[in-house]
Amino acid sequence: MPELPEVEVVRAGLEPAVVGSLITAVSVLDERALTRHLAGAADFVRRLEGRRFTGTARRGKFLWLPLDDRGSALIAHLGMSGQMLLRSSDAAPERHERVRISIDHPTHGDIAIVFADQRTFGSLAVDALIDDVGSLIPTQVAHIARDPLDAAFDDAAFHSNLARRGSAIKRVLLDQGVASGIGNIYADESLWAARIHPETPANRLSASAVSRLLIEVRSVLEKALAEGGTSFDAQYVNVNGQAGYFAHSLNAYGRQGQPCPRCGGEIRRVSFMNRSSHFCPACQRRR
Questions:
Q1: How large is the average pLDDT for residues 48-74?
Q2: DSSP 49-92
Q3: What pLDDT sits at residue 143?
Q4: Of these residues, 32, 70, 275, 285, which one is catalytic?
Q5: Is 172 in a helix, a strand, or coil?
Q6: Catalytic (active site) residue 212
Q7: Is 61 in the active site?
Q8: Which of 86, 110, 141 is the last residue of a domain?
Q9: Which end of the chain, N or C, is more open, meaning fewer C-beta atoms within 10 Å of its C-beta?
Q10: In the annotation, is 275 catalytic?
Q11: Which domain holds residue 30?
């Protein structure tokens, strides 16, 4: 599933092409792409056509494009395999194309924003914007916390949250109500970098260990962002259809049976919450 770095790469790629653009036409080819827009396809089209995009924004794994009515935005969640692609206005349909939004940019001219999704777990919607401590966010995003790369992320609240939780630290990192955007890959990588066993109870971590972990979370996310995100297959690509290359920089995730880059111990993979955890039992000891 695309995580924070992948979604931020998509947001940054969309920004120069969509800001200031007039939405000239919207084609919904598959209504399964609108599961978050409960009013249906006709309402989705009506609320977009004739409007302009005024910006781009993201929180965690959600991204949205505010509209010029100042009260709503096009919101996207990519799910497992969703893609937001920029194509020429006359481009042939993409494989697994679900929605096409035609726009007219003041400089770049006619462009198509294509939402393609192989597994159909992603979704688009037009959602109302609400105030969240000085910033406007869609109502569908209000339930998740800010992410660690957000300038307004509250480090003290993160410390307090962990101190109250007896659950495994990896489970807490994946809780979008604590810190959004950290998925399975980046949780494993951050815990490896901080030398913390994924099953360590969160409330057993010292204040210095939590600070170290938060530093490593940010470092891992920033490096992944700089490298275009993590791509293991063709399902995650940027707006131009290109894969990220952070997979080549992974130290723990997906490296089971290989030597730990730090100590030489064997990376282990164990089942965790219907997915997997990857860690080095030698230098990420459970204390």
A1: 96
A2: TT-BB---EEETTEEEEEBTTSSEEEEEE-TTTEEEEEEETTPP
A3: 93
A4: 275
A5: helix
A6: no
A7: yes
A8: 141
A9: C
A10: yes
A11: 4-141
